[in-house]
UniProtKB/TrEMBL annotation:
Domain of life: Bacteria
EC numbers on record: 2.7.7.-, 2.7.7.108
UniProt entry tagged with the keyword Magnesium: yes
Any Pfam family matching the protein: SelO
Coiled-coil segments on the chain, per record: none
Native source organism of the sequence: Gluconobacter albidus
Family assignment from sequence similarity: Belongs to the SELO family.
Entries under PANTHER family matching the protein: PROTEIN ADENYLYLTRANSFERASE SELO, MITOCHONDRIAL
Residues given in the record as Mg(2+) binding sites: 247, 256
Keywords, ordered alphabetically: ATP-binding, Magnesium, Manganese, Metal-binding, Nucleotide-binding, Nucleotidyltransferase, Transferase
Top EC category: transferase
Molecular-function annotations in GO: AMPylase activity; ATP binding; magnesium ion binding; manganese ion binding
Protein name, per record: Protein nucleotidyltransferase YdiU
Amino acid sequence: MQLSRIYASLPEQFSAPLTPAPLRNPQIVALNEPLARELGLDPDWLRSPAGLAFLGQGSRPDGAPPVAMAYAGHQFGHFVPSLGDGRAMLVGEVTDRARQLRDIHLKGSGPTPFSRRGDGRAALGPVLREYVVSEAMHALGIPTTRALAALTTGESVMRETMQPGGVIVRIASSHVRVGTFQYFAAQGDTRSVRILADHVIGRLYPELTEAENPYLALLDAVTARQADLVARWMLVGFIHGVMNTDNMSIAGETIDFGPCAFLDAYDPAKVFSFIDQNGRYAYGNQPDMALWNLGRLAETLLPLLDSNHERAVEQAKSALMRFDGVFNETYLNGWRKKLGLALEEDGDARLAGRLLTAMHRGEADFTLTFRRLGDAVRSGQTEDIVSLFGPGSKIKEWIRDWQARLDREERSAEACHADMQATNPRIIPRNHRIEEMIRSAVTGDFAPFRRLTEALSHPFKDGTDGFETPPAAHEQVKNTFCGT
Ligand code: AMP
Ligand code: MG
């Protein structure tokens, strides 16, 4: 294994070295072997005592210290100048089979200089939620951090109740966040902002080195990746839950799965996070919040964009203006695919909008609606769609117009069906399934975790496992709690 220390070698203000502390009784409960192989890590070694110390406490074979990364962040709109990895560590970087650098990062591994009042630990429940949801996102084709392993620590952590402790081993293209830039900018440390920007360009956006203004090109590129990412979330009904600037990756990957959730019934105002009382990060607000966060990133880059402040602001604004265009393109193209439309017509956005209105009025299940539209293209039967909608939705009128639109397509129903089922998942990680899985895992029964993970690895396949079923009234999850 070639384990680098690229980020750890940046100037000392970027991170704090850590001494790995042993866990009481670490046990691997999940090891993602295909991902391990992709990263050039030997699964047998990972299961050995040395591998366990690597996964559980960040002990590097070369004995070099892992680090906690420094960052700041706007949390629910309020700026906190120093957050940092309070219960996480960057162990190092490996080069994967595609010759890309990937971070190996642990969460729940113990206190760091950034822990503030926290205990530096993670509870097993949120660890498994992150494992399941991040791997599900990957299987859905959405940029995301990955889960290499989940461990139990043999220790208890105090939350609302005592809970088993856990560690998640997370893989990312980078753990630099908008908040990392804010950390230095808030201290007026432009030199460090520049070092960070150069590091990010070199690692994640090497093609920008040649740009006329690489820092402007960076803002532009991050804006585009983030707009594309959030559009993809919207198309599968994903709610991140805590889109604080410290939880927004510069690499454009979904990161920090805390109180995240997928929509069951469609509702644009839906919020699951218990701590988000004002609905700041509601499903329908996510594009606006992403752009708001990018505005905070832009502010940190102003001194690098132009020595003239007004000119720098104009340039930053023009980069941020790209957000809507990229978002709308991914979103509308995604909608066409979801509805089985290969041709482009002007009325398509309106057709999609009318379906959302019908789903909202009829409280229809987001995922099942699309899956059954796909079924209907082949069978010609629409009762199973209509039955998802409550009264007053006007879904029948919508279906009639959609079918008229499909009649203008130039391909076979079979081809259209195949395309739709490859874009509209049958299975998403539904909250009630996750809660059920966690309830079992904390008693030591990991069978539901394994079944759910396996099913979510092929979300587009037909099947009879029952995982597509929405929650019954008594199974509905109203709130999810933060991942702490
Ligand atoms: P999060 O809500 O997980 O995005 O975390 C926000 C900030 O709180 C980060 O700086 C975390 O490192 C820190 N934090 C969260 N939980 C803990 C914990 N149990 N102990 C120490 N720091 C924590
Ligand atoms: Mg976070």
